[in-house]
Structures are given as C-alpha cells and as structure tokens.
Design a protein that fits this description.
- The chain has about 170 residues and is α+β, with helices and mostly antiparallel strands.
- It has a single domain, classed as 3-Layer(aba) Sandwich (Aminopeptidase), CATH 3.40.630.30.
- The chain contains four helices and seven strands.
- Strand 4, helix 3 and strand 5 form a beta-alpha-beta unit.
- The C terminus is likely disordered.
Amino acid sequence: MAMVEAWDPAALVLRPMQLRDLDQVLQVERRSFSAPWSRQAFVTELVENQFARYVVAEYHNRVIGYAGVWLILDEGHVTNIAVDPEFRGRHLGETLLRHLMALCVAHGAARMTLEVRVSNAVAQNLYRKLGFAGVGIRKGYYTDNREDALIMWADLPPSAPPATHQPGGSAR
C-alpha cells in the first residue's frame, strides 16, 4: 500500500469497534504483530466479554488502528494497541491510549495496567510519557518467541488527559 501523502488529522475518527470492522482490524493486526490474534479472539472480545471495550481509529473509512481495554472493578487492563505501519509516526498510538485512559476514567477506573515486550522501547517510552511505570516482568509471556513482558501500571487522574495526535505505532 502506498504511503498516505497528505495527512489530515481532522479526518480521523475514534469510535467503538464493531464486528463489521474485523476484516480491516485483522489486516492491521497481522501487519503489526508476530503473533496476531485470530478473528475468533476479536469476536469473543466484542460479543462475549462484558469487561471489554475496543475502539478503532478510522481515517477516510479505513481502519488504521485500534485499541482495547478490559474494565474490571476500578482498573483498566490494556489488551492491545496497534497502528497500521503505513500510518505510524502520526501520534495515533498516543491518541488511542489517551482515549482508553479517558474511557477508563469515565467508567470509574483509578488505575491502568498493560504488558509490553521488553524489546519494545518505542511503546515503553509512550507509556512512560503517559504516566505508566514498570513494576515487574512476566517471564516468557509472548508465545511466538517466549520474550518477557514488562508489566506497567499508571494511576489515572480524576479526568484523563485529552486525546491529541501524538507519536503512534503498535505496542503489545
């Protein structure tokens, strides 16, 4: 796919993920991760998981990123954030994470957690920028290569920072 030539941030829409989005979500998923989720995993999250909330970043009717979180009691657990490689560098990862943070605050969450590959410095820097701190390691967490995951937590402010277009990319 050709690189988008004239980026128009005003054309970006964040909205709840729907089943009809899955073909495009799976394209982003496969382009972003070495161990991509299956269609059935997303269907289960959208249809059966009462704790799950997923959003897509849509640009001119194309899904170019997505993010998910589980809202359990007063905590949010980020399940995934991905931005199509063609659209990275446009602050979409930060926009998606800020959106999840605001969603968590709106549902009464006081903290958020996530796991990130120990080798994914770009994602870790984004998470630290938004207040996450490393608190531990999950040994052999990733099934594709048994890479360790860094566990990160953040306390959420009474109102989450507003979504802005900041550094993007995929992180999981």
